[in-house]
Design a protein that fits this description.
The chain is of the alpha+beta class and 166 residues long. 29% of the residues lie in helices and 22% in strands. Strand 5 and strand 6 form a beta hairpin. The chain is globular. It starts with 9 loop residues before the first strand and ends in a 20-residue tail after the last strand.
Amino acid sequence: MIQKSWSIETNIRPNGLEMHLEQTQVIQESALGALNGSLTFPEIVGKLASIDVERYHVDYPRQEITYFIAENESLVVGTPHPLQPIASHFSGTSLELAARQSQRNEHSYLDFIRKTTSAGCLGYFVQITGRRVIYFGRDGDSHVEYFPSAPVETTTIYRSHCLWID
């Protein structure tokens, strides 16, 4: 069961520019929506792209996501999910399977976290402008998944971290 009462903490990293309140709100809503299952990955990517987020970095051990705006601004959002042990062996095959399950809406984002950490993933970069996700492990191993051009058909009811956008 997905917990519905997540607390999101933010930290704007100063670099001489100010992030607009609307951008901050959309970013916070996107992080919360991933955790509580109310937003799908395509919905999140669409919202973030509309406010000029180029990419974001998910760091599982630190339980945070750093969002990068086109103007070199960044926002760090705490994402308190259950900590999962991260396997020492990196498995690109297992990451691909977890991504495919997400594309078919067969699990929640919290299940996705559990499966990808079991595959040795410490975190990942979502390159919105480059339409790909780069997963990485503790020894520098990496696996790349490209956004499909169309959604994968599904009959399940889960809303999850799937890898496609319109």
